[in-house]
Amino acid sequence: MRLREPRRFRTNAIDGPRLIAMRFDLITIFPEFFASILSHGVLRRAISERLVEVRVHDLRAFAHDRHRTVDDRPFGGGEGMVLKPEPLAEAVESLGIARKAERTREPGRSREQVILLSAQGARFSQAVARELAGLERIVLLCGRYEGVDERVNELLCDRELSVGDYVLSGGELAAAIVVDATARLLPGVLGNEASSEFESFGPADPGSGVAKGDPPQSTHGSGGLLDYPHYTRPADFRGAAVPAVLTEGDHAAIRRWRREKALEKTWRNRPDLLDGAEMSEGDRQFLQGLGWGRDAGTGIK
């Protein structure tokens, strides 16, 4: 797993050292789309506490004809319309970020990225979100219509991302997903920073997870698996009771139960994740007891 680089601090005489807010620039033909998303929950709090800055830019402001045209017919024929390169290029260049050649000269050190959201992109994942959380500024281009002129991708963008194997009407929903998934990994955004570690697709435990003198730990890092099931009050709901192990106070037993349930849920819902998951020999034996390895196309690693 690629570790995040330390985030930078800015110091002034009044506030002292302060984290530099991570900035997202969203380029879209529907700027009003994001008003509700940015006004609720974790993102609203992160913005109000200056941990995250989000600026939305209307692509049509960079189209200079009478109709503010941002799309045109595709060369070679075909269905739909394609977003033109000129408005997108002008929008990106108006933001004052480094040119692509400068950003790519030292790939490991650049803290700015321009990302095109499209169905043809690499799949966005929790691992990618963690990588993006190490940046200081991200520009997200929201595709529309049949797509975006490929020269935008070639000349302006650092990467192309897709949020899944399906097609959306536009990149605005995808941009909202990327902003939310990335921002919640930043220091201080969640009330409890461990919340972003002990969840689906999170990292594995660094070891036992318990230092000498610490209280017993009942939570298990997912190591790339889905999260385990969660329960809260009441203890009995319509005849369905909370598993007894969760109410008996045995932290080691709870930790073991949660690990097994995470393995079982992953096996049932996302068996593809098991191929790259970090698992112990006990994990493998538990899965084999469920039938893992006997399914067609599933091999035991």
C-alpha Rg (nearest Å): 23 Å
Strand content: 15-25%
The CATH topology of the largest domain is given as Alpha/beta knot
pLDDT under 50 segments (min length 5)?
1-7, 207-213, 296-301
Largest sheet: 5 strands, parallel
Mean pLDDT: 86
CATH architecture descriptor of the largest domain = 3-Layer(aba) Sandwich
Shape: elongated
Give me the side-by-side strand order of the main sheet. Answer: 4-3-8-7-10
The ordered H/E elements are EEEHEEEHHEHEEHEHEEHH
Proportion in helices: 25-40%
Structural class: alpha/beta
Number of helices: 8
Provide a short characterization of the protein structure.
With 301 residues, this protein is of the alpha/beta class. 26% of the residues lie in helices and 18% in strands.
Describe the structure.
By secondary structure, this protein is of the alpha/beta class. The chain has 2 domains: 9-183, Alpha/beta knot; 201-290, tRNA(m1g37)methyltransferase, domain 2 (Trp Operon Repressor, Chain A, Orthogonal Bundle). Helix content is 26%, strand content 18%. The protein is built from 8 helices and 12 strands. The protein has helices at residues 41-48, 85-93, 100-105, 126-132, 150-156, 172-183, 251-269, 281-290; strands at residues 9-12, 16-19, 22-28, 52-58, 71-72, 82-83, 112-123, 137-142, 147-148, 159-162, 236-237, 240-241. α2 (85-93) runs parallel beside α5 (150-156) and α7 (251-269) packs across α8. The model is unreliable at 1-7, 207-213 and 296-301 (pLDDT under 50).
